[in-house]
Design brief:
With 149 residues, the chain is an alpha+beta fold. Helices cover 49% and strands 25% of the residues. The radius of gyration is 15 Å and the shape is globular. The two termini are 30 Å apart.
Length: 149
């Protein structure tokens, strides 16, 4: 019965968050954070409540991270997706904002629906002195650029 509720809840959260994830970087961060948080919550708690808590926490962290990344940070993140060695962390400090990022990319894979290359990454950020961790996925668009999903 737990799994009968799990799938509709995740689909509902994904649709709800993806509707606000257009070009808004905070919305995209929230959507990615919610998906990652839901997966982690389910893996840890093995129940719907843990999944929903994970989605809520992931959404909040993803929103905060997406909202704080400026053009310089997005260029650095794109560089990690493009050239980062899987499993090896890449770090940078934004001289304008003072924010710090440590990104660990995972191996590329082909999205089974779009057949486009995608990569996941763990992002640990220090924003305003507070450490936040989120998980993101980026896939190549028609122009070959990495786009957060």
């Amino acid at each position: 019965m737990k799994y009968n509720l799990f799938i509709p809840v995740i689909l509902s959260l994904t649709l709800l968050l993806s509707s606000c994830a257009g070009p808004n970087k905070a919305g995209m961060g929230a959507a990615g954070g919610a998906a990652g948080g839901a997966l982690i919550g389910q893996a840890i708690g093995h129940n719907t409540e843990a999944t929903l808590i994970g989605a809520a926490i992931g959404s909040m962290l993803g929103y905060m991270l997406g909202n704080e990344m400026d053009k310089y940070d997005r260029e650095q993140l794109n560089h990690v997706y493009e050239r980062g060695v899987s499993g090896q962390s890449n770090s940078w400090h934004n001289p304008d904002t003072g924010n710090q990022y440590r990104v660990t990319p995972q191996p590329a894979y082909s999205n089974p629906v779009t057949n486009r290359p995608c990569r996941q990454a763990k992002i640990k950020a220090v924003i305003d002195g507070k450490t936040q961790t989120t998980y993101t996925t980026a896939c190549r668009d028609n122009n070959g650029n990495w786009q957060l999903q």
